[in-house]
Amino acid sequence: MKRKSILFLYLLLLAIGLAYETQSLTEGWMSGSQYGIVGLSTLILLVYALPAVWALFHFAKKWKLSWVPVLFSLLGGGFVAGWLSSFANTYFHDMIQAIAPNSDFWNQYESAIAAPLFEEPFKLIPIFFVLYLFSVRRIKSIFLLAIASGLGFQIVEDFAYIRQDLPEGFSYTVSGILGRVANAPMSHWVYTGLVMLGLFLIVQASRGRKDLRLVGWGYLVAGFGLHFVGNSPFSQIVTELPIAIPVLNATGLFLIYQAYQTVERLEQAK
Predict the structure, then answer these.
(1) pLDDT grade, residue 250 (50/70/90)?
(2) How far apart are CA 99 and CA 124, in angstroms?
(3) Whether the predicted model's global pTM rises above the 0.85 cut
(4) Model confidence over 54-102: pLDDT tens digits?
(5) How far is CA 155 from CA 62, 162, 216, in A?
(6) Within its chain, how far is the Cα of 258 from the centroid?
(7) Distance between CA atoms of 251 and 270, rounded to whole angstroms?
(8) Which of 9, 257, 252 lies closest to 143, judged by CA?
(9) d(CA 188, CA 160)
(10) How far, rounded to the nearest angstrom, does the alpha carbon of residue 181 sit from its chain's CA centroid?
């Protein structure tokens, strides 16, 4: 009975998120040209989304993890963590505007602070639901579920930016989604994979594996840190030869590869 209640709660949160993320498309206020922009931008978004989802389920099959918990985690990242984070970010912004409306610091760093502060914990919620509902225990499987939640969040967030950019017109909306597609190889799926692995290792350290404490905290801080830097003024630095974003992307991909190697070593040590 308890498991069924938890499943119902999770499905309710998913349903709320699906309605929230699609309401602007179904209320009828958009013009025909705007629907066209959304359609084209969505096709551009699918350039990375479809291969990424395929790779996710490919690794699930390779690592002998059922597709069902992976799908639940993917959908939860998009339609549970998504709307919860949106509300949290909005309320945080309103609070900052009330307390320090003309602060240069908050104007520059509000997004860098709020995004990891709220989004990373909320992206863990679907993972915890899935771990309980499907009794997933292997570190490899947990790592993949974290990547799935992050990827789901990333895809839905990218779609939300399409809707947000619409009032600025065709060129602005399309260029915006092209930029997000270009940066997709190092985004939320990396952050969440690192944060969840770090949390898992810290828990294992508290149960006796003290050798895992330092590396666990390293991955946890790295996940939050990359998210912070990605939303900070650093990522907006413009140079003749692009440096800021490539450095951030290379660092994130390097760290997620190190995380994968850590997972492999721990699996083999069992």
Answers:
(1) very high
(2) 29
(3) yes
(4) 999 999 999 999 999 999 999 999 999 999 999 999 999 999 999 988 8
(5) 23, 11, 27
(6) 19
(7) 29
(8) 257
(9) 14
(10) 14
Q: How far is residue 153's CA from residue 149's CA, in Å, rounded to a whole number?
A: 6
CA gap 16, 203 in Å, rounded? 31
Q: What single-letter amino acid sits at 242?
A: P
Residue in the structure block whose two tokens are 């799908």? 71
Q: Provide the pLDDT confidence category of residue 268 given band limits of 50, 70 and 90.
A: confident
Residue in the block written with tokens 């919620």:
125
From residue 142, alpha-carbon distances to 13, 116, 176, 263 in Å are 21, 20, 32, 10
Q: Give the pLDDT confidence of 100-118 residue by residue, as tens digits.
A: 888 899 999 999 999 999 9
| Per-residue pLDDT at 126 | 97
146 neighbors 193 (Cβ within 8 angstroms): yes
